[in-house]
Design a protein that fits this description.
The complex is a heterodimer of chains A (334) and B (175).
Chain A: H1 3-38, H2 54-64, H3 75-92, E1 101-104, E2 107-110, H4 119-140, H5 144-175, H6 180-185, H7 192-195, H8 197-210, H9 235-260, H10 275-297, H11 303-333
Antiparallel strand pairs in A: 1-2
Chain B: H1 2-23, E1 49-51, H2 66-70, E2 76-82, E3 94-102, H3 111-115, E4 121-123, E5 138-139, H4 141-144
Antiparallel strand pairs in B: 1-4, 2-3, 3-5
The chains are: A mainly alpha (334), B alpha+beta (175).
Chain lengths: 334, 175
């Protein structure tokens, strides 16, 4: 066994998880500050200089909160559901390539945890697992509002997964492979967002719906359903669910950047491979900014309109896009 | 064709909305850094009560308890005592020796201010009223009296006999 290889994988996986978890905390900070600026106010600015320690304060608060499990809740599933929400969110990013290859300690190390040759399919399947977490969280709370919230969220997510999957087909056809690394390599000349604008749009909209973010956040509409499926959760379990949502936001932004915005590609990335993660990070940052901007601007979709939008508009458009892309490739590619 | 124009209208509305919110990031935030910076209240703000004084330092309150009668929440308690010329608190016959307002009962309606015949009790602009115990919510006369004005004397004052003979004083500052 090549122990150095195992060590390399372990270190990369641990590093990715650690970066994601601290990044999640500062994503909440970014959201609060940016949302505040759009609403003509300043966000948190008391806790540290410029409020930079606010996520730390939030984490400490959630750790010290009383962990309440309702008496008639189905306890095992109640405890399992947050794990089922968080873990798929974290492992999606295993297939996203963060950079080219660097040479460290005499080894060629690829800046990406795993180069699965069916990367896009892996992403779609793992996002589907987190759906289980949501509906189990709602059901095991023994609370009819949580149950309704969980069901609504599940219905929404699986509807938009169809459009999402079909919108992935565009870049896959252009790159000729499902592997994320090869999709990034195929964007050397031109980013796929230029060649596939419709697919990019459908992908982004579906991703916002997948993550249950505004304007698609009816299942956790704070004003209406009082937090929906996670209403009975408190303390660390709530922190895990919250974390799952924000990590999924970052993960889908990274996937969108990889598929349509050229991933880690940018100026001089071939000479300096360490610029790769920096470019991808910048694209993720901008994509998160757009998600926050959407949240600040748009009102919530009504639930039946949300479902109609997913099934009657996005799905046919995605199919149309696949059709046109395939014809285009046959006619032009030869 | 109208289908396309309706799509176009929708997209235009979306873009205009998004542009508006992005442009609002450039506006100066309206946040005030309370408690380091405090905003001034409007002129008729109904905050904590203040028992006013005349310019020479005498209290305006004559202990008539009309405010206690007018209060819809029964928050005011007044006990009056006779003024003597050696120890004169107000220019009338009596003064309020015990004056207590229960801030937990008070609804800040201002009826006491409307009922007062001498304009003694007014609702001022202090809104920072917090206490840790129910008994601390009873505000006494000493807590409610405003400070002595610059050219006045503190009460009780020693005055000439025969100056303040009216039981209800004139409604202007005594000389």
């Amino acid at each position: 066994m090549d122990y150095a290889l195992i060590l390399e994988w372990t270190i990369k996986a641990v590093l990715l998880t650690v970066v994601l978890l601290t990044g999640f905390a500062y994503t909440t900070y970014y959201e609060r500050k940016f949302l505040a600026r759009i609403q003509v106010r300043i966000g948190p600015n008391r806790v540290g200089p410029f409020g930079l320690l606010q996520p730390v304060a939030d984490a400490v608060k959630l750790l010290f909160k009383e962990e309440l499990i309702p008496q008639k809740a189905y306890k095992f599933v109640f405890l399992l559901a947050p794990i089922l929400i968080v873990v798929p969110a974290l492992i999606i990013l295993a297939v996203v390539p963060w950079g080219g290859t660097v040479t460290l300690f005499g080894r060629e190390i690829a800046l990406g945890v795993a180069d699965v040759n069916v990367g896009a399919l892996y992403i779609l399947s793992v996002t589907s697992i987190s759906v289980y977490g949501v509906v189990l969280a709602g059901w095991s709370s023994n609370n009819k509002y949580a149950m309704m919230g969980g069901l609504r969220s599940t219905a929404q997510v699986i509807s938009y997964e169809l459009a999402l999957g079909l919108s992935f087909v565009g870049p896959v056809l252009l790159a000729g492979s499902l592997s994320m690394n090869e999709i990034v390599d195929a964007q050397q000349g031109l980013w796929f967002i230029v060649l596939q604008p419709l697919s990019a749009l459908i992908c982004y909209v579906s991703m916002v719906a997948e993550v249950n973010r505004d304007p698609f956040d009816m299942p956790e509409a704070e004003q209406e359903l009082t937090a929906g499926y996670h209403v009975e959760y408190s303390g660390m379990k709530f922190a895990l669910i919250f974390m799952g949502e924000y990590v999924k936001m970052a993960a889908v932004s990274a996937i969108f950047a990889t598929l349509f915005l050229g991933g880690y590609r940018g100026p001089f990335v071939d000479q300096i491979p360490w610029l790769g993660p920096l470019y991808l990070g910048l694209k993720v940052f901008i994509s998160l900014g757009v998600m926050i901007w959407l949240r600040a601007t748009l009102p919530r979709f009504r639930y039946d309109r949300l479902m109609a939008f997913g099934w009657k508009i996005l799905l046919p458009l995605a199919l149309l896009n696949v059709f046109l892309t395939a014809i285009g490739i046959v006619v032009l590619g030869g | 064709m109208s289908f396309l124009t309706s799509i176009g209208n929708g997209v235009k509305a979306l873009v205009v909305g998004m542009w508006t919110t992005l442009a609002s990031t450039l506006e100066k935030p309206v946040t005030i850094q309370y408690p380091e910076v405090k905003e001034t209240m409007r002129p008729r703000f109904k905050g904590r009560h203040v028992l006013k004084r005349y310019d020479n330092g005498m209290e305006k309150c004559i202990g008539c308890a009309l405010c206690a009668a007018a209060c819809p929440a029964d928050a005011i308690f007044v006990e009056a005592s006779e003024n003597t010329d050696e120890a004169r608190y107000s220019p009338g016959e009596r003064y309020a020796s015990t004056y207590e307002i229960n801030m937990l009962r008070c609804i800040y309606c201002g009826y006491c201010e409307d009922a007062c015949p001498t304009e003694a009790i007014v609702l001022g602009d202090n809104y920072e009223l917090s206490f840790t115990d129910r008994s601390q919510a009873i505000y006494t006369r000493e807590m409610l009296l405003e400070p002595v004005p610059a050219d006045g004397d503190p009460t009780p004052q020693k005055v000439e006999p025969g100056v303040y003979t009216r039981s209800i004083p004139e409604m202007k500052d005594p000389d």
